Every structure is written in structure tokens, then in C-alpha cells.
Amino acid sequence: MPWYDNIRIGGLNKNAKKKDIPDGLWLKCPGCGEIVYRKELEKNLFVCSKCGHHLKITSWDYISILCDDGSFQELDTGILPEDPLGFCDSKPYPVRLRNAQEKSGLNEAVVCGIGEIDKFPVSLAVMDFRFIGGSMGSVVGEKVTRSIERAIERRISLVIVSASGGARMQEGILSLMQMAKTACALTKLKEAGLPYISVLTNPTTAGVMASYASLGDIVIAEPKALLGFAGPRVIQQTIGEELPEGFQSSEFFLEHGFVDIIVPRNKLKKTISTLLGYLYSG
Amino acid sequence: MARFVLEFEKPFLELVRKIEEMKKLQEKNNLDLSSEISLLEKKLTELQKKTYSGLTRWQRVRVARHPDRPYTLDYVRMIVTDFIEIHGDRNYADDKAIVTGFGTIGGHKFVLIGQQKGRDTKENIKRNFGMPHPEGYRKALRAMKLGERFGLPVVSFIDTPGAFPGVGAEERGQAEAIARNLFEMARLGTPIIIVIIGEGASGGALGIGIGDVVLMFENAWYTVISPEGCAAILWRDKAKAPEAAEALKLSARDLLELGMIDRIIPEPPGGAHWNPEKMAETLKKEIIKEIERFKGYEPEKLIERRLQRYRDMGVYREVKNARPKTS
Ligand SMILES: [Zn+2]
Question: Residue A106 Cα, ligand 1 centroid: separation in angstroms?
């Protein structure tokens, strides 16, 4: 998870804590460096109108972009992280968790529930990069698995929006096994004949990319998201040379056949509902 | 004996040298020193046992990486008969970091998949240090599917420092290849027996690691990231790998306590590389036992059991409806 940038912007979600939203009326776009008016950026779903850069947004921002007004109901809110290894690096894992909870206003790195996307009922799981880099530990694995199972129980579609640096180191082998757990659950969804749309946002890498994020019946990516198995820094160190331009971007993975469609944020909802019209028969 | 010597192995070598000297002396002067020799041998075994029972996690990582440690094909040579290796993923290439083939063990026919490291520089280049590319995972899946179709159990040997982080690996979908294997292994209609024989680093290991039973060698390690990778990120210093190894709880005993593996396979005194033949014999017994255990299972029953096994993995607590939100 070494490749975070410093851009963490929330705002569409009225419940988000104030400190997630940078102060000031003007922001510098991390894509083109231009100074943009904050209100305008917000109206544009935090996509720069000058260069099209998709700024990172929160799980609740995605929920309000995707779900019909008032249709989303959050579920499994009471699943909370533990510290099974007693992990401590520069600070103890429980402290890290508490900080992440306070900073994000979330219990963990994924928000799950049911909602409607242009009237299509969906089981929705949205990851949140603000929470320890959107990393997947036991709670994320369990909540994603329950979201899959909920789709099967209710015979509705599954949509997962990923934003993650991968499996969470602080839960060691347990995090790794969440890749197995979620993949196992997805086989049941397939047996049940229900569609799964995987949405990859910036960044989706490592253990999450190497499990459920890559297993969508349809894989959608936001423009210019960082995707991949290994982090670019690790690859650069391994091969000892500069990486090619655009390496590991959404466009790169589209070109190489691992992404179906690149969809800008303002077309995300419409694209998903159109796809569900083809894939979901109720 | 060992060409590469770990710090804590040095006292063993001292005794080995003494034993060899005594043997030479015995031969040269036609003396009977057998009781002295067996005493020293006993002393060596005791010392090895004592040392190894107290190894730190990082020391075990170093044992797992010992360049003399037996690799997949060494075990094949020692305990598998009629082995026929098969090659290629039928799409791109033959990845030599993963070996696949058909073999027989104790009269049982099976499909073998396993990561393979090289013994010297030349072979390591060929084997890519046991770091597979996507085509390696796809070759393994092809072999497993053959096992399913023709009613052969699958035995998977895990021994990798990780899936290869490279440009070609990304271009050809390293993440997708691993994810696909997890998905397909979950429902493979034949028994899958997993043995972690050395290094089990991250998704690169798990990509051939979903099964009905997971066994782990006493000095093997298995976790979400390599100690160096973890140290580089969380400590911002690769040299802190020993600390990371401790924090990650990556040893066989840790994994057994966490309920992530079924059994630890004991290694000979001094580790697998001190007595590869004995290690291989132990492994053979374990594999035969597991093949026989799962032989009678109906595929449906086996799959259900496998899915349940992974369903239960994870540690969290659950309280009633904390902070529900709607939008
Ligand atoms: Zn811009």
C-alpha cells in the first residue's frame, strides 16, 4: 500500500466529518495543477472540468452518486475490527483503527447495504480509501461476503465499488484469507445466476485486485485510475528502469483486456443501470 | 555439508566436522570409534532440536529460504514415481516458476502443481526465483482442470517469495490470473491438498493455495506480504524485516493457532535441508494419508465443505447496529 497520494476529498456526503473536506473555496487539481472553484468541482462530482481528473471521493459520495434518492439502507454496521495478531509497528493496530475511525467517521473500510440504481435493486458494497488505504482485513472480507450472500438471498444484483491498496498487513494471514473467502462466495453468486458488476476506482491494487475486484461479470473502471497487482514502485525497483507512460492505468488494463469499459463518474450510474437491464431479469 | 551456513547452524557444523574426523580416523587406523561417533551424532541431533525449538520467526524465514532447502522437484524425485511434467498455459508461454504434471505416490495417481526455485544463478534465472507470471497460474489451473476431469486429486506445493512484480506480468493480468484461480479452485470437483513447503508470500502463494486441507512445514512461513515488503511500508526500512516477521505472526505454529492451517509437518533436526530424504518420507506419508482421506468424497460434498472452510475465516466482533446511515 505504499502509493497513496495526498488527495482525500469528501463533500457530497452530508454526514462526512468536516475535516475530510479541505478548507477554502479553491482547490488545486492534482491532475493538471489548475486552481479550480470548489463549488464547481463538487457539482461536477469531483471531476476536474479542465482536465477530467477524477479526484478521490468517499464511499458515501459513491453511494449518493449511484443510488436513487433515499433508497440506500446501510447494513452490517455492527461488524467491527479486532486485533488478532496484537500487531504493532510505529503504533499499535488498535490505535491505527481508532484514528481511521475518527478521521473517516466509518467503522471500517467498506460500507455495505441495499439500494436501487435507476430502480434496479442491488446489493452494494463500497470501499473507502480513507480508512487505512481501503485495505481489506477480516471486517472488509466479512462485509463483502455478506453483501454477496445478500444478493443471492434477495435475488438481486451485486455491485462492488473498490478503492484499495490491497490486503491489510496488520491482520497478516487473516487478511490474505479474505481473498479466498470473497472468491468462494462469488462462486455461489454465479451458481445463482445473478450478475456482479465490479467498479474499479483510484487506486485498486494488490489483494483486492487479485480477488473480487477482478472477478466481476463486467469490470468497469473510472478513467486514469491506478490498477494492478504489484505497486509501481515495487515494479520499478525490480526491473530497475522507468515504467512506461500510462503503465497500470485503467486505459492500460482496458488495452490489455482486463477491463470492459472505462466510464467517467457522471455516466457511472446510467452505465450500470443499462448493463443491469441486459443482465438482470428480476 | 551445507554450503550456505546460517548463524545458528555454525555449532552444528562444528560437530559435523568432529564426526567426520573421527570417521576418517576410524578408517585410517582400523579402530572402532562407533560409540564415540554415535554419541556425537546424538549430541548433534539434540543441539539441533534445542536450537530449532527456540528459533525466532525471522530465523525460520531464513531457514525457509536456505539455498540447500529441498524444492518441489526434489520431492518429486524422491517420492513421486512415473512423473510426467506438462508444460504451458496454451495461451502465452510455459512459466518455469510453476511445475505441473502427473505423478504417482504410494500407488495413488495425482496431479502435481508447485512453485519451483532454482538451485544456482542459471537455474534461478530460468525459474525466475520461484516467482510466477500469470501464465504460471493459468498453467496450474489447466492442470487442476485436467485433474477434475479425469478424477485425480491435486497436490499443490507452495514455495514462492511472491508473484512476479513486472511489466509483462501486469500486461498479462497477474491480478486476474490469481483471482481466477481462487474462484476456480473454490469449486474444483476433486480433492486439493495444499502443502506449504517453504515460502508462502501473499497472493502469489494463495494463487495455488485454496484446498480441502492445508499442511505446513515446521519452518515454512506464510502470510499476506513478505517481511521485507511489510517493513518497507510500515517501518519505511527494509532492514526492519525481522521486526515485521515477528509482528506478522507468519510461522507454522502461529498459523495453526490462528486456525488457518490444519497441521504442521515436522522437519528433521536442523530443518529439511539437513535430511532431505527423511523430510521427503514424512511428506510422502502425509500426502498419502490425505489422498486416502478425501478419496471417498462426492465432489458436491467436497466443494460444500471447502466453501464452508473459507467462509468461516476472519476475526471480528459484531455488535447490534452501530451507527446505521441512509442516503
Ligand atoms: Zn485538472
Answer: 28
State yes or no: pLDDT of B60 exceeds 70: yes
Residues A66, A86 within the same domain: yes
CATH number for region B62-311: 3.90.226.10
A12, A64 in Cβ contact below 8 A?
Answer: yes
Establish if B222 touches chain A: CB-CB under 8 angstroms.
yes
Claim to verify: residue A64 and residue A165 sit in the same structural domain: yes
d(CA B35, CA B24): 15
* Res. A11: pLDDT tops 80: no
Domain of A20? 16-54
Q: Is the pLDDT of residue B141 over 80?
A: yes
Let me know whether A187 and A265 are in one domain: yes
CA of A34 from ligand 1 middle (Å) equals: 6
pLDDT band at A72 (very low <50, low <70, confident <90, very high): very high
Question: Do A50 and A66 share a domain, yes or no?
Answer: no
- Give the closest-approach CA distance of A35 to chain B in angstroms: 30
To the nearest 10°, report the CA torsion of B126, B127, B133, B135. 80
List the CATH number of the domain containing A189: 3.90.226.10
Do both A194 and A254 map to the same domain?
A: yes
pLDDT at B71: 98
Measured between alpha carbons, how far is residue A3 from residues A52, A210, A231, A244, B231 in Å? 21, 17, 7, 17, 15
Residues A38 and A62 in one domain: no
Per-residue pLDDT tens over the stretch A21-57: 455 788 889 899 999 998 999 999 999 999 999 999 9
Residues of chain A positioned with their CB less than 8 A from the CB of B235: 89-90
Answer whether B279 touches A (CB < 8 Å): no
A163 domain-assigned: yes
A6 within a domain of the structure (yes/no): no
Which of A48, A50, A55, A66 lies closest to A11, judged by CA?
Answer: A55
Least confident among A194-198, B33-37, B107-111: B33-37
The pLDDT, as a whole number, for residue A239 is 86
Residues A97 and A186 in one domain: yes
Are B230 and A187 a contacting pair at CB < 8 A?
A: no
The set of residues, in sequence order, having a beta carbon less than 8 Å from that of A94 and lying 6+ positions away, is A83
Instruction: Decide if B300 touches A, using CB distance below 8 A.
Output: no
Q: Do A174 and B314 touch (CB under 8 A)?
A: yes
